């Protein structure tokens, strides 16, 4: 039951929902899943590594890429630009890998419009209070940025209804298992196995 092309998985969720940790566990447990590294104009946070967390670019470099149509989608999120490099995603999907984009809600809806087969997963914190606690714990943002991110988190949660699945982050490892279950269920969908069925019927073996 093999899919030639991998699945395109889109993951969003408010800041402080713990998306990063869940996805790190998911990729570790499920090597067929590749994390798409985005381009951003935001400054690196402590511990972030070029090419691992993001490709860090200037606004000029970002605009150059935009002109060259290098993004599958792009958005301004808070005061910075973010974009998904299209070439790598296409290459990995064609090679049979599943690819996960960790992007904001607006970018996610753009992807869904362009690729209706994309699997949309929303990661939510278990409690409202967790959002601010996590953001404070990270303590990389100013008070003003913190308020902006907390307010937008609530706005983002309203968009969860446009997603296919919600994963509640009570425990990052369980969250990763939930994502893997979703991927495996998607791979078993009849619509993703049409070729297999045709081969059984008409393959003559
Ligand atoms: P952060 O600055 O905390 O890393 O990310 C801020 C927001 O931007 C998060 O919601 C994250 O998912 C989103 N984001 C990261 N990369 C991309 C991207 O390539 N495209 C879009 N649309 N959003 C992104």
Structure at a glance:
The protein is α/β, with parallel strands linked by helices.
Give keywords.
about 200 residues, Rossmann fold, five-stranded parallel beta sheet, four-stranded mixed beta sheet, 9 strands, about 20% strand, globular, binds guanosine-5'-monophosphate
Characterize the structure shown.
The chain contains eight helices and nine strands. It is α/β, with parallel strands linked by helices and 205 residues long. The longest helix is centred in the last third of the chain and has 16 residues, at 172-187. The site of guanosine-5'-monophosphate (5GP) has 13 residues, from strand 5 and strand 6.
Write the layout of secondary structure elements.
Blueprint: E1 8-12, H1 19-29, E2 33-35, E3 38-40, E4 54-56, H2 59-67, E5 71-77, E6 80-85, H3 86-94, E7 98-102, H4 105-114, E8 119-125, H5 128-138, H6 143-157, E9 165-169, H7 172-187, H8 194-202
Parallel strand pairs: 1-7, 1-8, 2-7, 3-4, 8-9
Antiparallel strand pairs: 3-6, 5-6
Bound molecules: guanosine-5'-monophosphate.
Based on CA atoms alone, the radius of gyration comes out at: 18 Å
User: Which series of helices and strands comes N to C?
Assistant: EHEEEHEEHEHEHHEHH
Per DSSP, the total helix count is 8
Bound molecules: guanosine-5'-monophosphate
For the record, the CATH architecture stands as 3-Layer(aba) Sandwich
DSSP E strands, number? 9
The CATH superfamily name is: P-loop containing nucleotide triphosphate hydrolases
- The averaged pLDDT comes out at 92
Distance between the termini: 15 Å
Query: Which CATH first-tier class would you pick?
Result: Alpha Beta
How are the strands ordered across the major sheet? 2-7-1-8-9
What shape does the CA trace take? Answer: globular
Structural class: alpha/beta
What's the story with the biggest beta sheet? 5 strands, parallel
Strand residue percentage? 15-25%
Number of domains: 1
Enter the CATH topology name: Rossmann fold
């Amino acid at each position: 039951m093999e899919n030639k092309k991998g699945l395109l998985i889109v993951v969003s969720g408010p800041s402080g929902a713990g998306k990063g940790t869940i996805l790190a566990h998911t990729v570790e447990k499920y090597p067929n899943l590749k994390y798409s590294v985005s381009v951003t104009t935001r400054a690196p946070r402590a511990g972030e590594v070029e090419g691992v967390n993001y490709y860090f670019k200037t606004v000029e470099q970002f605009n150059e890429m935009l002109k060259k149509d290098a993004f599958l989608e792009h958005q301004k999120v808070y005061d910075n630009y973010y974009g998904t490099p299209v070439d790598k995603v296409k290459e990995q999907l064609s090679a049979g890998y599943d690819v996960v984009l960790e992007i904001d809600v607006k970018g996610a809806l753009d992807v869904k419009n362009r690729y209706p087969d994309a699997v949309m997963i929303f990661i939510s914190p278990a409690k409202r209070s967790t959002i601010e606690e996590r953001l404070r714990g990270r303590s990389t943002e100013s008070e003003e940025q913190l308020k902006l991110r907390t307010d937008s988190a609530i706005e983002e949660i309203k968009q969860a209804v446009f997603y296919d699945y919600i994963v509640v982050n009570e425990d990052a490892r369980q969250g990763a298992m939930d994502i893997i279950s979703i991927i495996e269920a998607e791979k078993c969908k009849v619509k993703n196995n049409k070729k297999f069925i045709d081969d059984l019927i008409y393959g003559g073996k």
